[in-house]
Fold these 2 entries.
Entry 1:
Amino acid sequence: MRGPDTQLEERDKQSMPFIALRGVSKVYDQLKQPVVALQETDLEIRQREFVSIMGPSGSGKSTLLHILGALDRPSTGTYLLEGVDITALKDKELARVRRDHFGFVFQSYNLFPELTAVENVEVPMIYAGVPARQRRARAKELLERLGLGHRLAHRPLELSGGEQQRVAIARALANGPTMLLADEPTGNLPTEQGRQIMASLAELNEQGMTVVVVTHDPAVAAWGRRLLTLRDGEIVGDEPVSEAPVLRAYLQVAEGAGA
Ligand SMILES: Nc1ncnc2c1ncn2[C@@H]1O[C@H](COP(=O)(O)OP(=O)(O)OP(=O)(O)O)[C@@H](O)[C@H]1O
Ligand SMILES: [Mg+2]
């Protein structure tokens, strides 16, 4: 039974941003001088958004992504996850928050070479304590969802780069995250395989997944709905992808390809 309190909580959850950063910065303490990788930043991201992050090399894109995904802690400021301050959590608690809420995809696929596709997808579920049969069933289902139902028993070296990245995406989804964070997910891929990866992420977003993608490539960024632009550790642009001048030339291509 859903009492009025539960309904109220549900409503609050929907109006509340999934993530809110307040005055969050990241300073790396180098021996001689500190490096400000991220200046004091305010940012809100809601559930079901599809955010692209662009900016020159060294502008703080990966730093921001790592903080969003609780892989790294801010040097200053407050991180609210569904309204709850997670800044002060102990390492163990933060690891749990990370496991329960976030899935990560990187430029290099980081798969275990000796494990099959389905076994690779099972790995995070082992850590989460999911029973073996359930694990196997979910891993298969995720790989099928990503169009790899015919590659379950292949090892990474027997897969194309695009296929390996789709295994990595399936693995990132294993524990049912709310948000998928991808750092240059197409960086090692030929154009067509990269396009397929973005089509997969767009489909997941349409099914309700919150997606954040860091990329140098405007053709990749154009798949998103909101574009954040970083420069020198600062968010200097935050606009709908459809209105971003730098992406104008790529929008029709993305729409045509996505149709
Ligand atoms: N662990 C670290 N220690 C010290 N400085 C760091 C560390 N990680 C990043 N930096 C510095 O912080 C700044 C931002 O780095 P970051 O990796 O976030 O950039 P980026 O936008 O992702 O760049 P790229 O496009 O090359 O991946 C850079 O000046 C970088 O040298
Ligand atoms: Mg980077």
Entry 2:
Amino acid sequence: MDRFTRVPIAEQDPKVRATNFDEVCLGYTEEEAIVEAKRCLNCKKPLCRGNCPVNIDIPRFIHHIAEGDFAEAARVLAEYSALPAVCGRVCPQEEQCEMKCVLGNKGDAISIGKLERFAADWARENNIEVGRAKEKNGFKVAVIGSGPAGITCAGDLAKEGYDVTIFEALHEAGGVLVYGIPEFRLPKETVVKHEIENLKKLGVKIETNVIIGRTVTIDELMDKEGFNAVFVGSGAGLPKFMGIPGENLNGVFSANEFLTRNNLMKAFREDYDTPIKVGEKVAVIGGGNVAMDAARTALRLGAEVWIVYRRTEEELPARVEEVHHAKEEGVQFELLTSPIEIVSDENGWVKGIRCQRMELGEPDASGRRRPVPIEGSEVEFDVDTVIMALGTSPNPLIPSTTDGLEINNRKCIVADEHGKTSREGVFAGGDAVTGAATVILAMGAGKEAAAAIDKYIKEKYNK
Ligand SMILES: Cc1cc2nc3c(=O)[nH]c(=O)nc-3n(C[C@H](O)[C@H](O)[C@H](O)COP(=O)(O)OP(=O)(O)OC[C@H]3O[C@@H](n4cnc5c(N)ncnc54)[C@H](O)[C@@H]3O)c2cc1C
Ligand code: SF4
């Protein structure tokens, strides 16, 4: 293996994995991880690290892997990240750390994500302890939502000795990691549950089935239940639709509902009762990670699947690896195509989707070329299910039940770069503030807010 070529990683065969929900990527062996890690130049000014949203000391953890000291590699990762086994699997590394790796100038960038995943998995499989909490300091913090933002904020505060309770609306903790991202990309029992267990070991209490704004309000948590500060990490779970005719037909799902039924309520398993009806021909509208996850899930449930996306492959916002895997498994792509109507049969079920072909025009405000309809280019596809994966926005419940909590015109909570909101003692971060984004950005926000909450409480109570 030369310095400029990546050690390939084992994956399930595409034909086999398209029929099961087991993880696609099988991970590096110890020997493979060492060979890959040895390619790293241990740069004095590591550009990879500068492009990591949580500033992980990438050369240091890779160096420990190269030396065969996997436990130390996992400890380095734990200094910066509460979820390395998750990030190693789902972060868009090709746009972050790996994009800046100097080896990428001449050949393959180091497989930083796969090495991160290797070290975190190794530590889990070998029961290595990577974090400890200080003695309790007598202050209570409530964390709303158990996604990556809430998990990170809670973990960091618990390590500092705070008495932390997470309140989660659903019956299981993990946020999008359990209800959104499918099992074949992120195993729930082994990986996600382990991270949640680590949090509990730090003393964090998790109360599920509690909807803040309904069961109890933020004001009540602070005024009656004695919480000194609150972190809102409630995500952006409200699906968007296109506003085209036919969106109310039977057989139209939001990707959120479709994926939640499958992931959290295990509709794909015959021994579970959750109903899910996926037809024989499915159109998934959108081009992000959510669209790829919905398409690949529908494929595994036995359907023939098309992604319908209005720009070209170059603009697809999904991770490159997910697009590659989707294609390998047999998902088909109708690019430069935009739906204009979902067509009904005589019983109110979907029987097709009418679309318009597009071409790319001048760049829009986002800098991407705007898709423009081509006149007279309408086409109709025979499908019996349509899944809308067009993005999500935050649920207005918490702002509407919390006095003085400002939101912007996108319904996102307004917070500064440390998570401070317009309401004293209330901090926020993750998708609830940014709108739908990424796991690592939500984690970064949770980390910033934990530091700001610590500072706020110490200053307020003169500690
Ligand atoms: C299908 C899918 C695939 C994705 N794939 C990727 C990927 O590959 N890579 C990547 O980086 N990102 C991906 N993302 C985006 C990423 O998962 C999110 O950006 C991230 O999870 C946001 O974290 P969060 O903690 O802010 O919110 P969430 O993970 O959404 O967690 C918020 C939690 O708050 C709870 N909650 C909401 N309201 C209340 C309330 N009133 N009371 C109590 N609890 C409440 C919710 O039930 C939820 O559990 C994906 C998203 C989806 C949906
Ligand atoms: S830029 Fe690449 S080679 Fe340099 S330290 Fe980072 S991973 Fe290693």
